[in-house]
Structure formats: structure tokens, C-alpha cells
Design goal:
It is built from 16 helices and ten strands. The protein is of the alpha/beta class. Helix 10 runs parallel beside helix 11 and helix 12 crosses helix 15.
Length: about 375
């Protein structure tokens, strides 16, 4: 039992109660009823050798998991455990969670270590410390990007309570091979807004809309294909605040499709939804202005309209993704032909890739499905 917890914080199996505040015997009063109805913890049988991780599939065996969840934390012992419980309650089990310590001075590292001992899907990493230079949470996310093994990246933070089917819904969304990233705005629990939720966002995000309102709200609502990082790059750790918005502007500005899901998949308990609940130091006004200016400067780089060459390059990328995903056979070929029609020069800008994808899309029509899946899945 981590320091600061009382016997009433865990059940007879040593499993943290849901939801709870360490040091109390009752669930968090502000959101107990709503959260309990959303996600009860799954009590898993423990393997004396491997822990719960024995049930986790490829993430435990050293193969690439489907999801990598990046979770930096600071002084967040009061909210970290319930967030990790929500991850354990996911109906999709093929994931790893990278718990990245940004220099916590409370019991958060002990909480993280206890969960890592129980389930090997939790991986402990150490991020930049205060005073090391650079924004600790941006540095921590960059460490997570470098260490992640999953094909889909999802961000999380202490205080964020994922609905049990969040990863399943993201998996379903990514069956659309044209989708690069998705988000589902979170809902604050125990407030008037929870009783009367506002309209859900619709339509693909643009740079202009990001700068006007940023409907993503926070990174815990975001998931993306890991391959995008090769183009978008890492978070700007020089920024004291707003590195997430600047990074989202780059993602959308590079032409990637970021679209909303149809309902909230993350809950933020009232109080935990406030800045600093994750252990991150609340920003000053100067830091907020500095981050906003950086995002504006980045946005200015993406003011030109996409060219036909840009469209062909994107369609080549989508055709390759359709082949790897085992999408309907004519879809990959249709994407390839549209790319060639838009700009042959753009399609063959990378001559080897263009020829390979076009040939594969044609051959895919003739091969048995099982053979095609084996050939194009890597």
C-alpha cells in the first residue's frame, strides 16, 4: 500500500477502491455516483509470477502493443491511482502505459511503482526534473514518444478518467484509413455542465479553428497513429506553456486529418479538472501569452492552400495504409488512382514508394485475402 493510503482505501484483495481519495475511507464525494456508474474496476486474477500483465497479450510478451498511452505526472498522488484504475478497466487490453515522472515530490512515484509491480503493461520512465531546462511535461511527452511501441498513441494525465470502452471506440474509428487522429472532448463530472452537455464538435479540424477555440481541449482527449510523429515531430520543450496547442497546429497544418468522435470518452471530476491536477505547475499569464504567440507563429507557416502534389502525396500514404489495414480491396486501388490523377509527379516524388504502393494495390485485387493480409501487414 503506497504511503499516505489507509486500509479503507483498498478492498480485501488489495485493489484500490473506485473512486477514492487516498487517506479517506469514502469515495470522492464530488463525483462518486456518476463515476461509479461509468467504470467499476475489473478485479483480475493475479499471476504470482507475472501479475495482471499476464493477461495483457502482446504488450507483455515484448511484441508491439496496439496502443501506447503516454502519462506524465507530477505531484498528483491524489488523482493518479484512479486514473490508472480507469486504464485497467479498459475492455481493450492490448496496450502499454508509459508512466513518466517529471520530478514528483509527493507519493506519486510510489503509486506508479505499485501499479507497475501488479501489471507489466505499466512502464516506469523518468523525465526531466524541475530546473533541468525545458518544460518538464513537454520533455516527458517527448520521452514517451521515443519509447512508445504501439501503433496508436493516446495521451493521458492524472485526474482523467477514461470510459471503459474508450480504446475500443478509438479502434473502431481508425478502421477508417483516411483518419489520422481523433479526439473526444472530455466532460466534467458533478457540475451543471455535466447535467446539460453542450453540442459536440463536428467536422475535421483546421488550423484556423484550432487557433480560434481548440475543441480538443486537452491531450487526454487525443489519439493518433504513431507514424505521424515522423512528420509532426516532438513537443517544443522550450515553451513554458502551450506546447500542446503548438504541436496540434503542426499536426493539422501538415495535412493530417483530425476529426471528433461522437461522444465524450474521458471524465474529469470537478476539482481535478482544474489546472495543476496532474501535478503540472499552473502557468503564469506571461507563459500563456508566450505559448499562444508560438502557436500563432507556427500557424502562419501553414497559410498556403495544399497543392495537387500535396494531395497526391497524402493519397499515396493513405493507399499504403489501406493495404496494411486489410481495407476493402478496391479502396487501396481507388486511392492510388486518385493520387496518380491528382499529380503523377507528386505520386512518384518518392519513386520507390510510389511504384511499390501502386503495384501492391493492383496485385492486391488478385491475391487471396489471407495472403494479401500477410504480405501487406508489415
Amino acid at each position: 500500500m503506497p504511503p499516505g493510503w489507509h486500509p479503507g482505501d483498498v478492498d480485501a484483495s488489495g485493489h484500490p477502491r473506485w473512486p477514492f481519495v487516498p487517506g479517506t475511507t469514502d469515495p470522492a464525494p464530488a463525483c462518486a455516483g456518476t463515476i461509479s456508474a461509468v467504470a467499476e474496476p475489473l478485479i483480475r486474477p493475479r499471476d504470482s509470477t507475472a501479475g495482471w500483465g499476464a493477461l495483457a497479450g502482446s504488450a507483455v510478451e515484448g511484441l508491439e502493443p496496439r496502443f501506447s498511452i503516454l502519462l506524465p505526472y507530477g505531484d498528483a498522488s491524489a488523482s493518479l491511482a484512479i486514473t490508472l484504475e480507469a486504464l485497467l478497466s479498459q475492455t481493450e487490453t492490448d496496450w502499454e502505459a508509459l508512466l513518466i515522472d517529471t520530478g514528483a515530490r509527493d507519493d506519486s512515484p510510489q503509486v506508479a511503482a505499485q501499479y507497475a509491480a501488479l501489471d507489466r503493461r505499466f512502464r516506469l520512465l523518468r523525465g526531466a526534473r524541475r530546473g533541468d531546462g525545458g518544460a518538464p511535461f513537454a520533455c516527458a511527452r517527448n520521452i514517451g514518444l521515443a519509447e512508445a511501441r504501439g501503433e496508436i498513441l493516446a495521451f493521458c494525465e492524472p485526474g482523467a478518467l477514461w470510459m471503459p470502452d474508450k480504446l475500443d471506440r478509438i479502434t473502431a474509428a481508425f478502421t477508417d484509413v483516411t483518419l489520422d487522429a481523433c479526439y473526444a472532448p472530455g466532460a466534467e463530472v458533478g457540475s451543471e455542465a455535466d447535467a446539460a452537455p453542450g453540442p459536440q464538435p463536428s467536422g475535421d479540424l483546421t488550423v484556423a479553428r484550432l487557433m480560434a477555440e481548440n475543441p480538443v481541449q486537452r491531450l487526454s482527449n487525443l489519439a493518433l497513429r504513431a507514424e505521424l510523429v515522423n512528420t509532426v515531430g516532438t513537443f517544443d520543450s522550450r515553451l513554458p506553456h502551450g506546447d500542446d496547442l503548438e504541436w496540434l497546429v503542426r499536426l493539422v497544418g501538415e495535412g493530417y486529418r483530425l476529426a471528433p468522435l461522437d461522444q465524450p470518452l474521458v471524465l474529469y471530476p470537478r476539482g481535478d479538472a482544474a489546472p495543476g491536477a496532474s501535478g503540472e505547475t499552473p502557468p503564469s499569464l506571461a507563459a500563456i501569452c508566450s505559448g499562444r504567440l508560438a502557436a500563432l507563429v507556427t500557424a502562419a507557416r501553414y497559410t498556403r492552400a495544399p497543392t495537387a502534389r500535396d494531395k497526391a502525396t497524402r493519397l499515396r500514404r493513405l493507399a499504403r495504409r489501406a493495404l496494411r489495414a486489410g481495407a476493402p480491396r478496391r479502396q487501396a486501388l481507388g486511392l492510388a488512382l486518385r493520387g496518380l490523377w491528382a499529380s503523377p509527379a507528386g505520386w512518384f516524388a518518392d519513386r520507390r514508394s510510389g511504384l511499390k504502393v501502386l503495384t501492391a494495390a493492383l496485385v492486391n485485387l488478385l491475391l487471396p485475402k489471407s495472403m494479401a493480409r500477410t504480405l501487406f501487414s508489415s
